[in-house]
Amino acid sequence: MSDATGSPVEVVQPPYWQEACKHLARKDRVMKRLIPQFGDACLRSRGDAFTTLARSIVGQQISVKAAQSVWDRFALLPRKMAPADVLRLKVDDMRAAGLSARKIEYLVDLALHFDSGAIKASAWDDMDDEAVIAELVDIRGIGRWTAEMFLIFHLMRPNVLPLDDIGLINGISKNYFSGEAVSRSDAREVAAAWAPFCSVATWYIWRSLDPLPVEY
Prior knowledge:
Layout: H1 17-27, H2 29-34, H3 49-58, H4 64-74, H5 83-87, H6 91-96, H7 101-116, H8 129-136, H9 144-153, H10 166-176, H11 184-191, H12 198-209
């Protein structure tokens, strides 16, 4: 697999996926219906912390399709998607790729954190989900939603339930409540059957709304 610049991208799949699918199909009638619709497709990690967080920032508050379009243009700008290369980019070129002024500020701050060594990515494997979230939200532009996307797509933590994600809430509304409005409490109640594989169930809920695989 290659990224938008044509460079090879390491793609990693979670080792728990098959176990999770069996668990979800057994515990949840909607999952039993959804999972077979998508064949062997599954969550994939690109294996690069900076790229995953940058894609999450680009994807904030826009659709999957729009985010991919902006990312494809942005990814052509640096020599490679690395913090030092992003810091060399011109603001006008980043704006022309479709990034807002605020998202540019966030991407630059993210690149500074990585380039300066302020982020110790090697420590994350030994930290629990909430500890990683607490560290990430100290970076400008990274709120809980972005941190949760990182847990799912980079660290591939199996039991993340991103209640701030509008796609998850809309998907639960569509699949479990016939389109009626859904509260966070409703979503938690539905997800009780998903544990300890909420990340996997969330991925299938996203797919039920948009056949394009969600990736960061």
